[in-house]
Amino acid sequence: MTRNEVVSEALWKFGDTVGLAGGVFGFEADTKQAEVLESDPHRLLLCCSRQWGKSTTAAVLVAMRVLREPGALVVIVSPTLRQTAELVLKVRGFVERVVKLRGRGRLLLELPNGARVLGLPGNECHVRGFSAPTLVVIDEAARVGDLLYKSLRPMLAHGGDLALLSTPFGERGFFWREWARGGELWTRVSVKATDCARIPAAFLEEERRVQGEDWFRQEYLCEFVGMDNQVFRQEWFDRAVAGGLDVAALDVRLDGELW
User: Fold this and answer.
1) 227-236, pLDDT tens digit by residue?
2) Could you please report the per-residue DSSP string of 202-256?
3) Fewer CB within 10 Å, N- or C-terminus of the chain?
4) What is this structure's pTM?
């Protein structure tokens, strides 16, 4: 039996995506992780707590994509090369349960079916020149610069999928804008630490006490709590508008846009 036939047999045996993740990869998805794996969206926004398993869930998504689609190219980007390499390493661990990879590069995986996983640094000038990926994954997207995001999006011109994964980092940047204003094109999934049984309640109470309320809300409750240098929080502005504030009569600029 060829390696590609092994992959096909595994997909047939376990049927659905979650079954494949558990039966072949040894990844037992919780309810929210299963929601992400089963949705297979064209545009995914995953806003989640620290230590929920975001990177591992993303690695499963990528592994399934390259195993299922011969010739597929998946591009992974993170704020730093080290973070990108860690995610590629997780993908490698899952893929090698099924097929033997060609080569041992830290940032490039090549499968026998011609599919590839390519890790890139979080630097705009180093991501140009790659065409027609079937999937682009931006990990820790809230901490990736807007210029890099703008440089990556043209790669999707031929129908590629896009997944933005992150814990919030204030009301700034493309991750927040897509979450708050990106429209119905996006599939949004939010996962708070309080909804994850793997994170003890006692630990969360300690973090709330040590880190402070705002940081806790951002890191563990998936809230975009504003910027340190912001005079008025977005939530205050929204409540004022709901209460009758006439925005049209004001010269108010939020995130560079006239409201």
Assistant:
1) 544 445 555 5
2) HHHHHHHHHH-HHHHHHHHH------TT-SS-HHHHHHHHHTT--GGGS--EETT
3) N
4) 0.80
